[in-house]
């Protein structure tokens, strides 16, 4: 296969376009241009072409990962799910493109972790702080960490970032009770149920209700 034309991309800095004689175009980085010693008119063996296609796929996956993380932080599992999702079929295509190689996606994730752009420990802490600030309890925080694929070994350290829930519980109880009598059992149950749905444990809720003035048998 002959490399008909080699030109820099006008849209993405550092990307090069390889126009092949079969009409296809490969997009690679400057590193591949140098390492493969590419030039216009070069004859590419089947082995070299396969290696170039793999390098092009890896470069595209790295670019997608960086663009994805620039939108919002993700856990490693969330990023891998996005990287390995099957691409949508474009208009005019008979079949959908094959999904990316999971091994390449893992390699991209490793690369991002080495650079510090992907860090599940810091991500877990940020998730815990975010939901705690919104008034959710530890159970809800754990649910979110589980849903996002954060390893359980990182949960404890992340939850240490969360302040004592007592102050937040007191605020929520005052808001839910709306000045009602602390002996109103119906209002107390409604408030306790609301806090439980937010992920607070019963013992924390009970102590909060006692601080509000409820009787000890609540």
Automatic annotation (TrEMBL):
It holds the Pfam family RecX_HTH2. Belongs to the RecX family. It comes from the Bacteria. It is found in: Cytoplasm. InterPro entries: RecX_HTH_2nd, RecX_HTH_3rd, Regulatory_RecX, WH-like_DNA-bd_sf. HAMAP family: RecX. Modulates RecA activity. This is Regulatory protein RecX. Keywords: Cytoplasm. Residues 119-159 form the RecX second three-helical domain. GO terms for cellular component: cytoplasm. Its main location: cytoplasm. One of its GO terms (biological process) is regulation of DNA repair.
